[in-house]
Backbone:
């Protein structure tokens, strides 16, 4: 038994109700039911309905379940790009999507800014030939966000026929997106949904479905079991082509219920309150400073700071208090820390973390 609170940016702290839902899943032998049974279809439909409500998702969007955000990157390129994709790159996750497109043999273009910096829509020229435009709402490696209001400007400047993709893996459900300004949004559950990893959630509209059908018609292979047409057809029957992660789908439906009970407005408000506490602390600290200079681009959900003390040492000091923070990403491992601010983290847990970081006297 551990009481450790994980402020790591994903996997992260589990939503507080997960233990009880896990117990009920085991008691009801969710792991043994058929994925073609009515019981499974009800679990699937329940998770989708809860997500639609939580995210205030328009009806022209499908909700699909895959194994991870990495898988969604691959499927998006396979299913929606004949020749060319375009990517905004400012860190490891946005770069990875760009690389995957190249690995799948596509022509790739990017607009790249240095790690820790954000994008100014007026500086980004999107080629006329881009079929998919990849934005990253929250770059988890650097703690940089795209202001939600900027997304409409990218839609304006992107080719009309292109599909606008938004990576919200480490920010949803906080951002209040206008889904009409985009074509697809995706996330995986081990970040802000406070669940064990192993489920990617892909939201896409009818334009994506039409494009996939068009590519298929022209004889292009979309892949095999996880093509958009197959996922949508099965999804509408509350099923998946393969035997899916039934347990996590069950848990997602339950946690989303709990989030809906709490209310999205409260979740957003608490996220903003906790982010303010963390940034105020970092600004005043002598050991840390916010890594993202421009306040307009600072992430509210994955907060990155430059540190004089490596995360590994900080975590040794925090261990007696049952807390762990994230290290910097990649080459920033020792010079930055990352603090997750997800719905699973309570205001008082954040206050306790900041209190301990302050009293370490390091
Ligand atoms: C974690 C993360 C991913 C990858 O998610 P997986 O579920 O590990 O595939 C993609 N994008 C962002 C922004 C992330 O934080």
Residues:
């Amino acid at each position: 038994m551990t009481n450790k609170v994980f402020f790591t940016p994903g996997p992260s702290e589990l939503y507080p109700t997960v233990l009880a839902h896990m117990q009920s899943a085991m008691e009801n032998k969710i792991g043994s039911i058929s994925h073609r049974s009515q019981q499974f279809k009800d679990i699937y439909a329940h998770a989708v309905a809860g997500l639609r409500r939580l995210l205030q998702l328009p009806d022209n969007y499908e909700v699909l379940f895959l194994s991870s955000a990495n898988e969604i990157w691959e499927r998006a390129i396979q299913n929606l790009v004949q020749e060319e994709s375009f990517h905004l790159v400012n860190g490891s996750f946005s770069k990875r999507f760009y690389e995957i497109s190249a690995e799948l043999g596509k022509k790739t273009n990017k607009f790249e800014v240095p790690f820790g910096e954000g994008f100014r829509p007026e500086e980004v020229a999107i080629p006329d030939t881009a079929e998919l435009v990849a934005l990253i709402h929250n770059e988890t490696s650097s703690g940089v966000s795209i202001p939600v209001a900027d997304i409409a400007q990218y839609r304006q400047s992107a080719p009309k026929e292109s599909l606008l993709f938004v990576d919200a893996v480490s920010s949803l459900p906080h951002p209040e997106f206008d889904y009409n300004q985009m074509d697809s949004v995706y996330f995986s559950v081990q970040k802000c949904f406070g669940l064990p990893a192993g489920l990617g959630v892909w939201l896409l509209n009818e334009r994506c479905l039409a494009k996939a059908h068009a590519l298929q018609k022209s004889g292009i292979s979309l892949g095999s079991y996880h093509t958009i047409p197959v996922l949508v057809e099965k999804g509408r029957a509350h099923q998946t082509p393969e035997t899916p992660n039934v347990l996590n789908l069950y848990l997602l439906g339950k946690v989303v219920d709990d989030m809906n009970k709490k209310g999205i407005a409260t979740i957003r408000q608490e996220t903003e309150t906790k982010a303010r506490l963390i940034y105020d602390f970092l600004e005043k600290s002598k050991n840390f400073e916010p890594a993202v200079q421009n306040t307009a681009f600072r992430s509210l959900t994955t907060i990155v700071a430059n540190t004089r003390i490596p995360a590994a040492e900080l975590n040794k000091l925090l261990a007696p208090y049952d807390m762990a923070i994230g290290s910097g990403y990649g080459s920033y491992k020792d010079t930055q820390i990352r603090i997750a601010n997800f719905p699973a983290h309570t205001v008082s847990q954040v206050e306790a973390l900041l209190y301990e970081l302050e009293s370490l006297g390091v």
About this structure: The first strand starts at residue 5 and ends at 7. The two ends are 29 Å apart (CA to CA).
